[in-house]
Design brief:
Strand content: under 5%
Number of strands: 0
Number of helices: 1
């Protein structure tokens, strides 16, 4: 019976060994994925920062553009007033 018990124990140990190897493999794979995800996260964070800077620049440009449009409208109004005054002088 000791041979049977030893064979059974050996089978249990071999299955346990295989499970441990699978777990080690899974942990190594998880570490590799974690490292890759950290690198991706850092890269994406830098991209977000760059896009936020572009968005901020675009908002500044939009503000400047609006100010220039308002100034253009003021100039048009002044020119129209001057033309009306010139027309009034000519009559």
């Amino acid at each position: 019976m000791s041979n049977t018990a030893t064979a059974a124990d050996l089978g249990v140990v071999e299955r346990l060994d295989e499970k441990i190897r699978q777990l080690i493999s899974l942990v190594e794979k998880s570490r590799t994925e974690s490292t890759k995800l950290r690198a991706d996260n850092e890269r994406l964070g830098k991209e977000v920062d760059a896009l936020q800077a572009q968005l901020s620049d675009a908002a500044g440009v939009a503000t400047e553009l609006q100010a220039m449009r308002e100034e253009r409208d003021q100039v048009r109004t002044r020119v129209a007033d001057m033309l009306a005054q010139l027309d009034a002088l000519q009559m």
